[in-house]
Amino acid sequence: RRAMRSETEMVFDYVLREDRSVLESIDADYTFLNAKLATHYGLPPVEGDTLRRVTLPEGSPRGGFLTEGTVLAVTSNPTRTSPVKRGLFVLENFLGTPPPPPPPDIPALEESAKSADGKDLPLRAALAAHRDKPLCASCHERMDPLGFALENFNAMGMWRDVDARQPIDPAGELVTGEKFSNIRDLKRLLTHERRLDYYRCLTEKMLTYALGRGLDYYDVQTVDQIVDNLEKNQGRISTLITGII
């Protein structure tokens, strides 16, 4: 637990102090690990208890906040993953397009989690049965594909290939039409085609934090200017901070 928290803090600290792109919080070829955390993630061995910057193996799904144990744990339920919570986290914190609150009297997912013969359904199939109401489907179509892209990570951030003895299918499609086949594809979409959405989302959250108030209509010009400058400067975090100051 301590190592997971330190990993996230040290990644942010590294981006900040080295003035790197804020997009590295989504996708990067490095993270900070010690022996226990590297073993937990199934990565090549790292010696000692001290966390250090480690270059990830080529093609690794790790790198960026979305694949760190902190985010994967807090967006899970106590006994299983939650594609809904994970998808909502991406929408709220990376794309800036949170869905409206769910309607009342929605049955629990567990009520949809068994097939007609009583067997446990894979989570994707259970969610498909859960959202058969059109009112539910409109929001779940935005959240669930993003969450399923992270299904290869269990509730504690360890890699897995099956769920309920069925192969995990992490493929999906954004509501804007872009398709992805796994978490690596999704991270590429977020850092390329949808990077301006992330710049705007991050700018709005940082401004809200710095100003101590919600944003209003007269803040739009400031947000637009900071986003434009982030795009011109390859997303460097100093551009965001000095723009807010």
What is the structure about, briefly put?
With 245 residues, the chain is mainly alpha-helical. It has helices spanning 2-17, 35-41, 69-74, 83-95, 123-130, 134-148, 183-191, 195-211, 220-232, 237-244, and strands spanning 30-33, 52-55, 162-163, 166-167, 172-173, 179-180.
* Content of β-strand: 5-15%
H and E string: HEHEHHHHEEEEHHHH
- Low-confidence parts, pLDDT < 50 over ≥5 residues? none
Q: Count every helix, treating DSSP H or I runs of 4 or more residues as helices.
A: 10
Tell me the major beta sheet: 2 strands, antiparallel
Number of strands: 6
Mean pLDDT, to the nearest integer, reads: 91
- Structural class, please? mainly alpha
Structural shape: globular
Radius of gyration: 19 Å
Explain how this protein is built.
- The protein has 245 residues and is mainly alpha-helical.
- 46% of the residues lie in helices and 7% in strands.
- It has 10 helices and 6 strands; from the N terminus they run αβαβααααββββαααα.
- It has helices at 2-17, 35-41, 69-74, 83-95, 123-130, 134-148, 183-191, 195-211, 220-232, 237-244; strands spanning 30-33, 52-55, 162-163, 166-167, 172-173, 179-180.
- The protein has a two-stranded antiparallel ribbon.
- Strand 3 (162-163) and strand 4 form a beta hairpin.
- It is globular, with a radius of gyration of 19 Å.
- The two termini are 34 Å apart.
- The mean pLDDT is 91.
